[in-house]
Amino acid sequence: MLPHEIRGSGPDLVMVHGWGMNAGIWSDWADSLAADFRVHLLDLPGHGGSDYRVGPQLDDWSAAVAGQVPGEAWWLGWSLGALVALNVARLRPRQVRGLVLVAGTPRFVAAPDWPCAVDAAVFDQFATQLRQAVERTLLRFLSVQVRGAEGGGELLRRLRTLLSQRPYPQDRALRDGLHLLQHSDLRQALLSMDLPLYWLFGERDTLVPAGVSGSLPGSREIVEGAGHAPFLSHPQACTRLVRGWLLSGSRCGQHAAV
């Protein structure tokens, strides 16, 4: 069982955090969204207060999260959480009303036919460092998330504080989660999905370049000045955009910067 917190009332909204973090990352944003939705906050397997008792595959992680939340819910995933949410929609399409994907992509690693992504060597380096010094590597990953973003120094301090408020992720969960980021490719599955999709990118994100937005189906927005965690650096803009899209239930939209 994964720790499961519920806030607010209304349509169900499942929020899935990213690699190395925990559901505490959503605290302020969840309060804002809970005015209109019944928000479900879960720690990914082996993260925060969750034990790591699932297999190492993306299907295993997705099933663990999906098994604890209602059907017919909206899903909001950030980074690795976006990958998990996408895969839940692939595995259990009737359980998902639509997806909000924050700093998400169906493939994190660059390929000849997928240039708007991170070079494989970057993740290889993280994997090597993770075997040598887990905490140092995790903190370095936080630094990469805020690189180039407005108010990056303050944002990094906040990420470190949020991380420290709950138990650190388990080593094996970190290794397996990083492997999912390195090797998952949901591009074909994404093309076959028939549900509302909404992508939210940070203009200055170095992990998921905003340029990938032109290759993705659905609605998308780019938050100017934001890095990999736009909901922390630009909470009001993100709340307005996501809340508006969710409440409208829209299936289409135009690319814009805000």
Poorly predicted ranges: 250-258
Q: How many H/I helices?
A: 10
CATH superfamily: Alpha/Beta hydrolase fold, catalytic domain
Query: What share of residues are in beta strands?
Result: 15-25%
Record field, number of beta strands = 8
Mean pLDDT over all positions: 92
List its traits.
about 260 residues, alpha/beta, Rossmann fold, eight-stranded mixed beta sheet, 10 helices, globular, disordered C terminus
List the helices and strands and how they pair.
Blueprint: E1 4-7, E2 12-16, H1 27-33, E3 38-42, H2 58-66, E4 73-78, H3 80-91, E5 96-102, H4 120-132, H5 134-146, H6 152-164, H7 171-183, H8 187-191, E6 197-202, E7 219-223, H9 230-233, H10 235-248, E8 256-257
Parallel strand pairs: 2-3, 2-4, 4-5, 5-6, 6-7, 7-8
Antiparallel strand pairs: 1-3
Describe the structure in your own words.
This protein is of the alpha/beta class. The chain is 40% helix and 16% strand. The protein has helices at 27-33, 58-66, 80-91, 120-132, 134-146, 152-164, 171-183, 187-191, 230-233, 235-248; strands at residues 4-7, 12-16, 38-42, 73-78, 96-102, 197-202, 219-223, 256-257. Strand 4, helix 3 (80-91) and strand 5 form a beta-alpha-beta unit.
Concise account of the structure shown:
The chain has helices at 27-33, 58-66, 80-91, 120-132, 134-146, 152-164, 171-183, 187-191, 230-233, 235-248, and strands at residues 4-7, 12-16, 38-42, 73-78, 96-102, 197-202, 219-223, 256-257. With 258 residues, it is an alpha/beta fold. Helix 2 (58-66) packs across helix 3 (80-91), helix 4 (120-132) runs antiparallel to helix 5 and helix 5 runs antiparallel to helix 6 (152-164).
